[in-house]
Design brief:
- This protein has four helices and five strands.
- With about 140 residues, the protein is of the alpha+beta class.
- The protein has a single domain, classed as Muramoyl-pentapeptide Carboxypeptidase, domain 2, CATH 3.30.1380.
- Strands 1, 2, 3, 4 and 5 form a five-stranded antiparallel beta sheet that branches.
- Helix 1 crosses helix 3.
Length: about 140
């Protein structure tokens, strides 16, 4: 099962995730981080959604192609008065700007067929191929 624990992120990503949560709180936005580390098997199951399983496509990454698999990404949802705001694009954009201000890459800014407004990652200058060989993010 996927993790939602910040401790499961590599230290540089954890530091940025903690800063993100603090900065969001300072801006009056609570956020719930609902996924950090995800195994390649779990990633493959998500990849099937909208392809071989019912539902809307939610990821273009297969196992080993997501920064979640390398403890370097997290997914979040903003909250207002304890209620999850899954559909509030403006609130996600505010959170995305905060994520970028603390050095994270916010997937809501990605171009192409799939923007992931709930996704943040930090690559530390590495490629996925380098991460797959065991290189660590600094």
């Amino acid at each position: 099962m996927s993790s939602r624990k910040l401790i499961d992120l590599v230290q540089p990503v954890r530091d940025k995730a903690e800063a993100f949560v603090r900065e969001c709180a300072d801006a009056g936005i609570d956020v719930l981080i609902y996924c950090t580390y995800r195994s390649s098997e779990e990633q493959n199951e998500l990849y099937k959604i909208g392809r071989t399983l019912p539902g809307k496509i939610i990821t273009n990454a297969r196992g080993g192609q997501s920064w979640h698999n390398f403890h370097a990404a997290f997914d979040f949802v903003p909250m207002i008065n304890g209620k999850l705001q899954w559909a509030d694009k403006k609130l996600y954009a505010k959170c995305g700007a905060i994520a970028e201000s603390v050095g994270l890459e916010w997937a809501g800014r990605w171009t192409g067929s799939l923007k992931e407004t709930a996704h943040c990652q930090y690559r530390g200058g590495l490629t996925l191929a380098q991460a797959a060989t065991g290189k660590t993010i600094i």
